[in-house]
Amino acid sequence: MKRLAIVGALLGPACGGGATKPPAAPAPAGHAAHAGHHGHHAGHAAHDFADAAHWATVFDDPARDAWQKPDEVVALLAPGPGQIVADIGAGTGYFEPYLTRAVGGAGKILALDSEPAMVAYIAQRATAELWSNVVAQVIAADDPGLPTAGVDRVLIVDTWHHLPDRPRYAAKLALALRPGGTLAVVDFTRDAPMGPPAVARLDAATVAAELTAAGLVARIADESLPHQYVVLATKPTR
Ligand SMILES: C[S@@+](CC[C@H](N)C(=O)[O-])C[C@H]1O[C@@H](n2cnc3c(N)ncnc32)[C@H](O)[C@@H]1O
After folding, report:
1. 59 lines ligand 1 (CB under 6 A)
2. For residues 171 and 149, what is the distance between their CA atoms, to the nearest angstrom?
3. Which residue is closest in CA terms to ligand 1's atom 14?
């Protein structure tokens, strides 16, 4: 696994971005960098995220803000004060400052990831940055581990294409959402200059169909992100 992480660093940015600031080694430009992106294959994309400190230089690169538009993403999800939000595939916690502000002290952010190193990284960051309402937890790759009707909002950024059985996962998320609750899937468009290789990319319409099949009311959001789409899906109230 460690060898894969090194290969990843040499190949350049992962699906979290990092288009403008490559890590340690020089990265090949554009799609060439992603053609050799390790661990991705048809159906879903596995990836090695064990080197959290390395991925922090990619995911938390301040230059990401210009295209990731985290305030806009969070505004679309619209979490409110006191709500419980699950951030699935939370990575190094890029979205946590925005989410924690939105729900306030009475709310809670569940920062969930299947990679223990990422969860440990977020837990340390939560302590250092005084995010008192962020709880970091390891989850299984095929199960968000959320209680029935236990969350108001779910955010999944650059992670949907990693899930092994998306229809089944969508059904679990539909169960976990409270009636009227919303989830947002943000992922790279087919022509984005960064992100997973072509074989692992999903159209927004595909994601929306997967969420609709799970019983949610899905729509492709109107937004201004240059490289990603946002699919919003709400659980009916009855
Ligand atoms: C590209 S990163 C995105 C991180 C974060 N959402 C962000 O926008 O910066 C993908 C994250 O999803 C996690 N991940 C991959 N497969 C997963 C799965 N099946 N369940 C939960 N997390 C997963 C990885 O460990 C990694 O932290």
Report:
1. yes
2. 12
3. 89
Look at residue 238 in the predicted model and tell me its pLDDT: 81
| Main-chain phi, psi angles of 35, to 5 degrees | -60, -35
Residue ranges covered by each domain of the chain: 64-234
Cα–Cα distance between 203 and 81 in angstroms, integer?
Answer: 32
**Angstrom distance (rounded) from CA 81 to CA 232:** 20
Instruction: Decide if domain 64-234 falls under CATH 2.30.110.10.
Output: no
What's the pTM value of the predicted model, to 2 decimals? Answer: 0.86
Residues of the chain with pLDDT under 70: 1-47
Write out the E strands in 126-200: 134-138, 151-157, 177-188
User: Residue 171: how many CB atoms within 10 A of its CB?
Assistant: 17
